Amino acid sequence: MSPAHTQELSAEPEPVPRARKRLASASIDGRLPDPQARERNVLITHDTRCALDAVVDLVNTAPEDDTADGLANLPALHDFVRNHDISDVGTLSELDLSAVRKIRGRFAGIFAASDPRAAATLINELVAAAGTTPRLTDHDGYDWHVHYFAPGASVADHLAADGGMALAFFVVAGEQERLRRCEAPDCRRAFVDLSRNRSRRYCDSRTCGNRLHVAAYRARRKEAAG
Ligand SMILES: [Zn+2]
Ligand SMILES: [Zn+2]
User: Fold this and answer.
1) CATH number, position 104
2) Which of the residues 118, 153, 195, 220 could staple to 157 if both were Cys, CB 3.0 to 4.6 A apart?
3) Stretch among 76-85, 169-178, 181-190 having the lowest mean pLDDT
4) Which ligand is the nearest neighbour of the Cα of 50?
């Protein structure tokens, strides 16, 4: 976990007991979990967050009108696996590449789901096909959490199992609508809205929100000057 990541997830100014720091969990609004708030807030463990980031980045490698496929070849898949610390996936092959591209399409479908029931159906199919083996682990200093991918799973099955369960978590929490697409006119990138009041409309990747702010600012100035 990078220092920036820690800061983002634990924005609470008060001192926090060591055990809770090590939990490395966060509620959706960026506060550390308070026992009484557990039932109200959506808590995201470190691993869920990592799995979500991997899913979002995977979906966003899909080619668009103006962009090439971010998973065009095996080296690109190697980079993706390394950047997301996807462990124990063995030697990657062209079969892995095509399997990951198929999984990418299925994740895109989940982001496009119109309601929780549609999302649940797609997630169930994805996770069932991945052959999950839920198991508790406390690796690398993180408190107990569940890994879903089966030991020896291919990279596609690994992504489908842990990414699928990370998305399932949002359906369970009644938060499926946080799985979004950027609303900037020329951008349809996927993102997960982790803002307190589900108000985020634009992705980070191309600073879409910023660009729109600048455009709105220029338009206002033009109006004021004209
Ligand atoms: Zn883990
Ligand atoms: Zn965008």
Assistant:
1) 1.10.3300.10
2) 153
3) 181-190
4) 1
